[in-house]
């Protein structure tokens, strides 16, 4: 009886996972399929197999969206944001986790409010301030905006990793004569590295796909990110949907490859962050 119940449970679990996998992969499969079709075929039937494989859609998308430049811009901006968020976030999370903060409840409320507050509330003041300072079309300035937006989430998550580290390790290192900086760098960072990797992947995904801030503060043709240049492919009256699907695949592919390569570390990091809050 128990064996039969176990088989039924496994069948239900795997059937549910199979349905969820199908729902997740269907949009990607349609994007790949339609990226190889002519625009007229997509309009007629987006689910049909192409009559002829249109590999030139990728060449046209690469040229028209100037991906040779915009992908590099996105990569540089994403890398700067990851470095800034992981550096400032890990240092702040370490202090919040290992020191007694009297105003912790107020600080928690501030971090949660900062995480949930929409960026539209700050967009106009930020733009006018950056314009007065001459920071429009400056990727470094945009990276600092991303850091301010994403840091509260990173701090809250990384704090759980630092809390999970036994206090005895810190005390033993301090007794041996290590400074707090050495304890942080040589003891804590290797232990919480899966959490930092998780934050890097999440922040990288957010930064790579971000549109509103990028299109507001990076307006020069040589400063556009890949997502903004992809948006500009769509015309007001007509659009080449095959080229647009190919461009979307070009943008998505680097993130998918990176996640597949690092998925084990990502899952370990997410599981480790739930050990202690």
UniProtKB/TrEMBL annotation:
Family named by the database record: Belongs to the binding-protein-dependent transport system permease family.
Key words, A-Z: Cell inner membrane, Cell membrane, Membrane, Transmembrane, Transmembrane helix, Transport
Its job: Part of the ABC transporter complex UgpBAEC involved in sn-glycerol-3-phosphate (G3P) import. Probably responsible for the translocation of the substrate across the membrane.
GO cellular component, one term: plasma membrane
Primary location group: membrane
Membrane-topology annotation of the record: Multi-pass membrane protein
ABC transmembrane type-1 domain residues: 71-262
Any matching Pfam family: BPD_transp_1
Keyword Transport applies: yes
Protein name in UniProt: sn-glycerol-3-phosphate transport system permease protein UgpE
UniProt lineage: Bacteria, Pseudomonadati, Pseudomonadota, Alphaproteobacteria, Hyphomicrobiales
Organism: Pararhizobium mangrovi
Keyword Lipid biosynthesis: no
Taxonomy, superkingdom: Bacteria
Location within or outside the cell: Cell inner membrane; Cell membrane
Subunit structure: The complex is composed of two ATP-binding proteins (UgpC), two transmembrane proteins (UgpA and UgpE) and a solute-binding protein (UgpB).
GO BP of this protein: transmembrane transport
Ranges annotated as spanning the membrane: 12-33, 75-97, 109-128, 140-158, 187-208, 244-262
């Amino acid at each position: 009886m128990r064996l039969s119940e176990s088989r039924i449970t496994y069948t239900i679990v795997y059937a549910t996972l199979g349905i969820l996998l199908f729902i997740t992969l269907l949009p990607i499969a349609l994007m790949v399929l339609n990226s190889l079709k002519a625009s007229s075929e997509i309009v007629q039937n987006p689910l049909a197999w192409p009559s002829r494989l249109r590999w030139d859609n990728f060449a046209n998308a690469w040229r028209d969206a100037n991906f040779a430049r915009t992908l590099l811009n996105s990569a540089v901006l994403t890398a700067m944001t990851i470095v800034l968020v992981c550096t400032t976030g890990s240092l702040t999370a370490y202090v919040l986790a290992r020191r007694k903060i009297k105003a912790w409840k107020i600080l928690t409320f501030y971090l949660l409010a900062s995480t949930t507050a929409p960026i539209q509330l700050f967009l106009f003041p930020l733009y006018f301030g950056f314009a007065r300072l001459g920071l429009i079309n400056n990727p470094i300035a945009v990276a600092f905006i991303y850091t301010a937006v994403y840091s509260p989430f990173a701090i809250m998550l990384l704090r759980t990793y630092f809390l999970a580290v036994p206090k005895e390790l810190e005390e033993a290192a301090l007794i041996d004569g290590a400074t707090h900086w050495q304890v942080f760098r040589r003891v804590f960072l290797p232990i919480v590295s899966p959490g930092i990797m998780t934050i890097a992947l999440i922040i990288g995904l957010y930064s790579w796909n971000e549109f509103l801030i990028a299109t507001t503060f990076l307006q020069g043709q040589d400063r556009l990110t890949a997502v903004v240049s992809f948006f500009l492919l769509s015309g007001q009256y007509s659009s080449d949907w095959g080229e647009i699907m190919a461009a979307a695949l070009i943008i998505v592919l680097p993130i998918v490859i990176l996640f597949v390569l690092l998925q084990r570390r990502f899952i370990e990091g997410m599981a480790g962050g739930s050990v202690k809050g």
